[in-house]
Amino acid sequence: MCGLHTILLLICISHLFAINGEAVTPRETLEIIIGGGAASPWPRPEYQDCPPPPPPPPPCLPTPSTQPSPTLTHPPSPKPPHGPSPAGITKTWEGNNICGDYKGFICDIVPDVNQKTISGVNFNNRNLNGPNLTLTEFLSGLKDLAFFHANSNNFIGSIPEDIGTLRYLYELDLSNNKFSGNFPYQVLQAKKLVFLDLRFNTFFGVVPPQVFLLGLDLLFINNNNFKQTLPGNLGSTTALYLSLANNKFVGGIPRSIGQASNTLLEVLFLNNQLTGCLPYEIGLLRKSTVLDVGFNQLTGLIPSSLQCLEKMELLNLAHNKFYRIVPESVCSLPNLVNFTVSYNYISQVGPKCRKLITSGVLDVKMNCISYLPNQRSKADCDRFFSNLQPSCTDKKFLTYIPCSKGYSGKQLEASNVHWATPAPLVRSYGALSPH
Ligand SMILES: *[C@@H]1O[C@H](CO)[C@@H](O)[C@H](O)[C@H]1NC(C)=O
Ligand SMILES: *[C@@H]1O[C@H](CO)[C@@H](O)[C@H](O)[C@H]1NC(C)=O
């Protein structure tokens, strides 16, 4: 299913989903285009498949609506937006044969009414613009829309109020447009959503906690201007990929993050204004392969619980205020490919960590390790340590190890592997470029 051409980044997710904490059911394979450059209509939603199931699994077909869906003979109001449309798709928006002729619109049969209608919109990378290019005119007529992908256009305005009434909508990609204002709370009504990509807009204010209660697989809200303490229920998210990078979030990383241990694979807190210590609950993320908290103001010791991140490949703690020692147990993690603690105040590394430095896995430049090159000046380090306030006085934060045993037994094997391990395919980092 993943063999696609011209797509910048295609993610095939196939994973197990825990239901009721016990039973495990294969979850539908999803194809996700992050800002895809696909020129052809893709992906085709297949209504025959189960809609992506929030637990417990829903029936395969939605219950028929009382009102049959209209077969659209016109797209919503396909008056092309004014202004240049470099990709030229609006030139094709003429005549009545929308499903056959109109580029950017994808049709499919709606099962309960057995009629062909517009099921998806793919305007990715079309650079559509115009003075009044709003979503309303596109969405309001499209009652059976399953996906709306509009990466890299010039949409403005607000999200239509009735977006939650789109009974099939499961993917909404509004990334890299000109949306502004508060978080589009309207999307919280779209209960079928599994993919919500709002990155690279200028939304500001707060992210409502309810967004972490949607049954999402992917939530990208990076590169906006959200400013708030991260909601305490962040760990309720079912997202596999979570990017909060490049906003203005403040406060600590919520301890609830450990609740996402059954699902969370990659999480980016990169470049916010987060403070406090890393909660030991991060160590519960036993499936995670990417954790990036770089460029914040986090402090304290690196918690020993991180040794439980059995799958971790890319661990970035750079540009914070972590100090003293990198736990040897963390350097023994079996899957580390890139462990960056540069630009902190680490003063000591043991033999296992030194091995990782030698093999190029661990980057400790610009710390306070007097016997290594490329460190901060002594004056800089002295200043930091003499002003150091005791932080994270809860000892559990530092010493509690939530997994039954660490992975130190694998260190020899692991350190051999590190030389040859290729860079991981990090999916959520794709979200950090606008397209
Ligand atoms: C854009 O919308 C505004 C406000 O609704 C309206 O006054 C203006 O005439 C519209 N411009 C165009 C080009 O349609
Ligand atoms: C390791 O990760 C850091 C932070 O994410 C990144 O800046 C750096 O380029 C990576 N190093 C390698 C060798 O991939």
Automatic annotation (TrEMBL):
| Residues annotated as signal peptide | 1-23
User: What residue spans carry the region label Disordered?
Assistant: 43-90
**Which UniProt keywords are listed?**
Repeat, Secreted, Signal
> Which Pfam families does the annotation name?
LRR_1 (PF00560), LRR_8 (PF13855)
Provide the Gene Ontology terms for cellular component: extracellular region
The name this protein carries in UniProt is Leucine-rich repeat-containing N-terminal plant-type domain-containing protein
Which organism is this entry from?
Answer: Lactuca saligna
Q: Where in the cell is it found?
A: Secreted
What highest taxon heads this organism's lineage?
Eukaryota
Where does the UniProt entry say this protein principally localizes? secreted
List the biased-composition ranges (Pro residues): 50-84
